């Protein structure tokens, strides 16, 4: 790759070739299930016609289409991209997507796959040079434990809920501690944002409140055979238990914040709601995911004033337009210490999500930091350090991965991207 074409050569080399740790992502669909969801979900977390009919008319889609058409060597139309990817062998599609990313290690939240539609953790290692690590989604863990302990021979009552809470608390605590001791597990994740909002109470609710909430969980399970935790006193309870274990073992707790699908309450997805919880557990590392978009400034503020808070800037690639991505990254850099910024793709289902999440982030990192150099805010050496920390070093330190950056991986990926763009 010819860095002489760039005004800041060292910055370009760091942005486009430094290997990356994807600190928050999800498994790919297995080949047999690769068409189970509309491919337009690559562009938006909307559902139904809002994604299949509307997402393709966003500026973000037009940019993604151009980039994918170059990757797949097809015409610059959304339907052409879809047809070309369908014509490829699935393994080849995965390879062409991943080999251009320079991702060295994946931290996979496999809790998104509740129906066994995805490939397993170790399957993803073929596309990285360091073994994948697991992020344990605590709501899924709690649901799995409850399913095995809800008594099917007793009526739903406060007494039954009291018994179940006692059994569950021991089993959940044991499962958290087991995960914390597992070298394959890098951390935990909560989707409280989706279920009951980020205003998680740091105070222990009365036992009766938790038991009453658990009665609601049991009643729905008995009636529908579906188990979904969405009762605030109980959901807050499992978050607090996780924060306690995390504080002792040092493995971070990731929180979905901001950007998501229609399930979230937007006003309760601001990370500002987490401030009391963050204060209550100062020894627990907290990662605010997805740049907390559109509440990025609030997230940056929290990371600037609390030692235990870190800010991830994933998922905005490719969901947000390039102009929006640059604005968001600038907001991240307004206050957030650059040793607390983490990058991710939030890749899921389709390999192209990883590709777009990487190439767009690298491009925006270069352009925003080049502006900062021109404005006299930072030197080029300082900007290079910011990129290396954001892409690799901060996650390596926070999650205690102990990795050495695979420089050759990044160089190979950059050359592949250059070849794609020249064709």
Beta-strand content estimate:
5-15%
Strand order of the largest sheet: 1-2-3-4-5-6-7-8
| Morphology call | globular
Our Rg estimate from Cα atoms comes to 22 Å
Helix content, binned percent: 40-55%
Q: What is the strand tally?
A: 8
Largest sheet features: 8 strands, parallel
Can you identify the CATH class? Alpha Beta
CATH architecture grouping:
Alpha-Beta Barrel
Q: How confident overall, as mean pLDDT?
A: 92
Pfam families: Amidohydro_2 (PF04909)
Domain Amidohydrolase-related: 235-366
GO molecular function, one term: hydrolase activity
Protein name: Amidohydrolase-related domain-containing protein
Report on the structure:
By secondary structure, the protein is of the alpha/beta class. The protein has a single domain (7-29, 46-422), classed as Metal-dependent hydrolases (TIM Barrel), CATH 3.20.20. The protein has helices spanning 9-17, 49-54, 59-72, 78-87, 90-98, 138-149, 158-181, 192-195, 207-224, 232-249, 275-280, 296-305, 316-319, 322-335, 351-374, 380-398, 407-422, and strands at 20-25, 103-109, 133-137, 185-190, 253-255, 286-288, 309-312, 341-342. An 8-stranded parallel sheet has the order 1-2-3-4-5-6-7-8. The radius of gyration is 22 Å and the shape is globular.
List the helices and strands and how they pair.
Layout: H1 9-17, E1 20-25, H2 49-54, H3 59-72, H4 78-87, H5 90-98, E2 103-109, E3 133-137, H6 138-149, H7 158-181, E4 185-190, H8 192-195, H9 207-224, H10 232-249, E5 253-255, H11 275-280, E6 286-288, H12 296-305, E7 309-312, H13 316-319, H14 322-335, E8 341-342, H15 351-374, H16 380-398, H17 407-422
Parallel strand pairs: 1-2, 2-3, 3-4, 4-5, 5-6, 6-7, 7-8
Helix pairs in contact: 1-15, 1-16, 3-4, 3-17, 5-15, 6-7, 7-9, 7-10, 9-10, 12-14, 14-15
């Amino acid at each position: 790759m010819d860095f002489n074409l760039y005004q800041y050569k060292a910055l370009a080399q760091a942005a486009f070739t430094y290997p990356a740790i994807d600190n928050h992502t999800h498994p790919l669909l297995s080949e047999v299930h690769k068409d189970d969801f509309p491919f337009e979900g690559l562009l938006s977390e909307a559902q139904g016609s809002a994604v299949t009919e509307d997402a393709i008319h966003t500026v973000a889609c037009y940019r993604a289409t151009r980039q994918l058409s170059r990757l797949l060597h097809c015409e610059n139309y959304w339907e052409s991209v879809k047809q070309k990817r369908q014509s490829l062998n699935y393994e080849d599609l995965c390879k062409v997507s991943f080999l251009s990313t320079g991702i060295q290690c994946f931290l996979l939240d496999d809790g998104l796959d509740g129906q066994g539609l995805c490939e397993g953790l170790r399957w993803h290692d073929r596309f990285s040079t360091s073994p994948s690590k697991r992020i344990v989604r605590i709501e899924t863990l709690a649901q799995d434990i409850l399913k095995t302990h809800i008594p099917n021979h007793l009526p739903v009552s406060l007494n039954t809920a009291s018994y179940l809470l006692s059994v569950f608390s021991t089993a959940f605590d044991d499962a958290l501690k087991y995960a914390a001791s597992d070298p394959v597990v890098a951390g935990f994740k909560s989707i409280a944002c989706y279920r009951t909002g980020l205003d998680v109470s740091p105070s222990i609710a009365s036992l009766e409140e938790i038991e009453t909430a658990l009665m609601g969980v049991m009643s729905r399970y008995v009636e529908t055979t579906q188990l979904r935790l969405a009762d605030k006193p109980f959901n807050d309870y499992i978050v607090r238990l996780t924060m306690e274990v995390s504080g002792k073992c040092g493995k971070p707790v990731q929180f979905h914040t901001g950007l998501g699908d229609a399930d979230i309450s937007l006003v309760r997805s601001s990370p500002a709601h987490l401030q009391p919880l963050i204060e209550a557990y100062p020894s627990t590392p907290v990662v605010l995911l997805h740049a907390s978009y559109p509440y990025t400034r609030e997230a940056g503020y929290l990371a600037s004033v609390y030692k235990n808070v870190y800010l991830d800037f994933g998922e905005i690639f490719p969901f947000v337009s390039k102009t929006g991505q640059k604005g968001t990254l600038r907001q991240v850099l307004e206050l957030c210490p650059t040793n607390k910024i983490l990058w991710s793709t939030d890749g899921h289902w389709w390999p192209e999500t990883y590709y777009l999440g990487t190439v767009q982030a690298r491009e925006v990192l270069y352009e925003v930091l080049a502006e900062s150099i021109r404005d006299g805010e930072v030197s080029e050496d300082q900007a290079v350090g910011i990129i290396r920390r954001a892409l690799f070093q901060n996650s390596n330190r926070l999650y205690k991965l102990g990795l050495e950056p695979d420089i050759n991986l990044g160089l190979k990926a950059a050359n592949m991207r250059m070849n794609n763009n020249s064709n």
